[in-house]
Amino acid sequence: VKALLAVDNPLREGLQEELAAEPCVVVIFGATGDLTHRKLLPALYNLAIDQFLPAGVSVVGFARRPKSDEQFRQEALETIRKFCGPAFEPSFAERFARGIRYVTASFEDPGGYDSLAQACAQLDRERGSRGNRLYYLATPPTAYTTIIERLGIAGLVETMGNGATPRKARASGGWTRIVVEKPFGHDLESAEGLNETLGEVFHEDQVYRIDHYLGKETVQNILAFRFANGVFESVWNREHIDHVQLTVAESLGVEGRGGYYEESGALRDLVANHMLQVLSLIAMEPPIALDAEAVRDEKVKVLRAIRPLKPTEVARRTVRGQYGPGAIGGEEVPGYRQEPRVSPESTIETFVALKLLVDNWRWSGVPFYLRHGKRLPKRSTEIAIQFKQVPQLLFEQSDSAALEPNALVLRVQPNDGIALRFGAKVPGPGMQIRSVMMDFGFGSAFGRVLGDAYERLLLDAMQGDASLFTRRDETEAAWRIVTSILEGWWHQPPPDFPNYDAGTWGPKAAHDLLANDGRSWAKL
Amino acid sequence: VIDATQAESLPLDARAIEAGLGQLWQLAADGSVGGVVHASSLTLLALLLDRDLAKRGSSVLAEVAPAHPCRAIVVEFVEAEPRACLGAFCRPASAGRPPSCWEEIRVEGSPADLNRIMSVVSSLALPNLPLQVWWPGDPDVGSPLFRRVIQIAHRIIVDSAQFREPLTSLARYAEQSEAEHGPVGFADLGWRRLQPWRMLTAQFFDTPEDRVFLRNIESVLVVHQQSAEGKADGLAAAFLLVGWLASRLGWTMAAEQTRLRADEADMTFDNGGRAVAVRLQTLSPDRSAVEDVGAGILSLELRAHHGGRPASYSIARTPETATTLAEVDGAQREAQVHLPAPTEADLLRRELAGFGRDRIYEDALAVVRLIAQRAERPATA
User: Fold this and answer.
1) Residue B308: which region, alpha, beta or left (left: phi > 0; alpha: psi -120 to 50)?
2) Cβ(A418)–Cβ(A411) under 8 Å?
3) CB contacts < 8 Å between A and B, how many?
4) What is the pTM of this model?
5) With an 8 Å Cβ cutoff, are B95 and A85 in contact?
6) Which of A104, A329, A432, B100 sits at 20 to 30 Å (Cα–Cα) from B193?
7) Alpha-carbon span B281 to B245, nearest angstrom
8) pLDDT of amino acid A165
9) What single string gives the DSSP state of each residue in B293-306?
């Protein structure tokens, strides 16, 4: 889309990087929720003040809580003031808020969609948004199907099944896109069902399944690191890499989301989307171009190459855990079963460790270990590429453990950066070798604040760039893997939960998962 | 926070300076818990060649350096024996910004010591990292110092808004960039200042309905303002804006000469056989209708005809905003956007994030050079 605009409009040449979105109406379903206030409204405001949005971008909130336009506008201003910090500028915020409207309706109410159509049409006339619509589902997933179907019935999406080019199909000449928040279903069957529903109303290239991890600079940097640096790609394979570790450690518990977590658990909440997305970026083949389809074609091949686990393999290659009471950072914290809205007999996992195998030419025999848990000792997300040991150790070590194989660590958070572990001679007589880290930090190198992932992703959706969004076949391929694990667990006896203390690195079985292979988790 | 400066200045000796910096960082590390880790992403050579520039430039650098951890080498010309003063600085994380450290080598000497000074600068440039040169004021483009700088720089950054003779200096800058066949980038804070104007202008023509008028522009009017001190300021921006439009839209200079008067410049371009009349109008501060807008471009207006239908597109600046107005067949679309005037530090901070050559800028510069060649200057009294 960016390239096409540059070709069509010669004045765009050289401005692609700072390409602004076209005027449009952003319709947020679930406008009174946490996501809208913490992330979406601040992100839209920041994009606007940074001149990425033209003045004709408007926001319509849609929710069942009764409110006037003015009330919602004032709430939005308060939210922006709270979450945008120094970027808040009263006079600009006031102008930004002029484009904000609110529709009070339940998601089932057909009349609400008529009101929405009227509000959008009026904004088209007043603010020149030309019929362009970005629908954002910031609601509980249970509401998705209703909203999608109602949008279709109300004629607010005029494209499907008729072969029309989706972005151009509306009578007004505008485009329609829909952003869907994770989770995209809770197993393979429900994911396919949601995709079917979406497919009946929207064309696939109108659907933007958002996984905010992909909007993080450091996750995008995986692509840059791999494909802009010749030196690493040549060793990025089974010949040189022993195994890969992906860790998403959270020190927080479920933070009042016990009700949601009871339905989801660690595997569905994080592994099914964020972690498998990151894994696919690490393992993918070079795409033929950096466009949405080429990148996603390669990512989905990785997911397809991960064989779903048989029930017997689930027992050997997965570990689940649930935290009990413990202490983090010197503070006593309750166990998961003592959290609000959590069953005292809950068997939901708050920790998961997996060993996955990518059965393709590049990765055959290289295990990918994934670990995610809540109430672990610290918050840390990183990818560790562990290289093979040198074939012959020339140096006699007094401490044999001191000479570790090379490792490349991509830190996503905190302290986003890249580190390379290598052996260096300890100064002094003799030839003692010790592992040292060569460390690159985004902050210290570029000295700039990394933009919020939602800003990047909202802008991409408005510009029609789906590269950082998940395609239908990707979500289904991911659920195929995750569902095989869920089914394996279903056939196992009930887990002996809680099996790790809050503030520790998970159950002993997680340690054993790697120890049985002669490996160990990176110490974070 | 670390603000370590060496009490005594050093003789102009690269090895002594490196050693002095090492001592400063060691001193800083000794006084802090956990030591100090500093990384650099570039060498920034700031040529602040007179006292006024040095004073202003130092405060700009203090704002820019935390965003670009670097070795800053500041060269000042003073009538004194060449010497160097050293500093090491760190700022803690704040408002989501990561912690940052940088070091500064302030080199003073007379213009007669140019060779010595530049030899030390060459030695002190960090290896394997880009060397960006910031040269505010009115650099003597093509001078021996300029040529010396080109040899070691990966990129040179001037500010055309500070040129005393914008058309002449821009034309010479264009000559240098055209003569440079290597990777040295020529950048300009004046061009960076134009970016929102380019963006807003481009946005008019994103829709096919408006794009037909883009190929049929008949006239361009750029109104710019002098600063209160009577300096040219907005004139360089006006020339660059016209250069950008002409280069992107494939206009060539018509046979007519460019007429330069005190408060107006008129030129004609050929757009595939159709004439495009361009006027640059200078307002002195007392004639400006808008208060506190400051120097620079005040408004841009493009007029076009297609198939008998008239269209006009205009952008007008107010202190904090810009109003865009598109009028096609009598129907108006008006919008206001946030457009605060960036500070010199803002511009430099953004410019330092760039690398390499900017072909769009160089194309615009090339047109400005052609305008200069066709210029019929007013007779001097």
Assistant:
1) left
2) yes
3) 103
4) 0.76
5) yes
6) B100
7) 17
8) 38
9) --SEEEEEEEEEEE
The confidence score (pLDDT) of residue A162 equals: 36
Q: Which of B97, B203, B360 sits opposite A449 (nearest CB)?
A: B97
Q: Provide the shortest C-alpha distance from residue A418 to chain B (in Å).
A: 14
Residue A213's H or E segment, with its range, is none
Among candidate residues B63, B124, B127, the one with its CA nearest the CA of residue A447: B63
- Is residue A511 part of the annotated active site? The answer reads no
Pairing mode, if any, of strands B331-338 and B321-328? antiparallel
Average pLDDT over residues B129-144: 90
A54, B203: Cβ pair inside 8 Å?
A: yes
Distances (CA, A) of A313 to A266, A276, A484, A517, B328: 19, 19, 10, 15, 68
Are the Cβ atoms of B360 and A128 closer than 8 angstroms? no
Mean pLDDT (whole number) for B7-16? 87
Contact partners, residue B188, CB within 8 Å, separation at least 6: B157, B158, B159, B160, B173, B240, B361
What residues of B are in contact with residue A48 (Cβ under 8 Å)?
338
Task: For residue A20, list chain B residues with Cβ-Cβ distance below 8 A.
Answer: 199, 203
Burial of B179 by CB count in 10 Å (0-12 exposed, 13-18 middle, 19+ buried)? exposed
Inter-chain touch A91–B68, beta carbons under 8 Å: no
Model confidence over A339-377: pLDDT tens digits?
Answer: 999 999 999 999 999 999 999 999 999 999 999 999 999
What's the burial of A262, exposed, middle or buried (CB within 10 Å: 0-12/13-18/19+)?
A: middle
Residue A331 Cα to chain centre, angstroms: 29
Which of A368, A209, A353 lies closest to A279 in space, CA to CA? A368
> Which ipTM score applies to this complex?
0.85
Is pLDDT of B291 > 60?
no
Residues A85-120 as b or e (16 or more Cβ within 10 Å = b): eeebbeebbebbbebbbbbbbebeeeebbebbeebb
Q: Catalytic residue among A203, A212, A274, A372, which?
A: A274
> For residue B379, what pLDDT is reported?
54
Question: Is the pLDDT reported for residue B375 higher than 90?
Answer: no
A444 → closest Cβ in B39, B202, B320: B39
CB B153 within 8 A of CB B132: yes
Mind giving me the DSSP string for A82-130? HHHGGG--HHHHHHHHTTEEEEE--TT-HHHHHHHHHHHHHHHHHH--T
Residue-wise DSSP of B12-79: S-HHHHHHHHHHHHHHHHHTSTT------SEEEEEE--SHHHHHHHHHHHHHHGGGS-EEEEEEEE-S
Which of 196-255 (B) contact A at CB < 8 A? 196, 198-199, 201-203, 205-208, 211, 214, 245, 248-250
Closest residue to B95, CB basis, from A11, A18, A86: A86
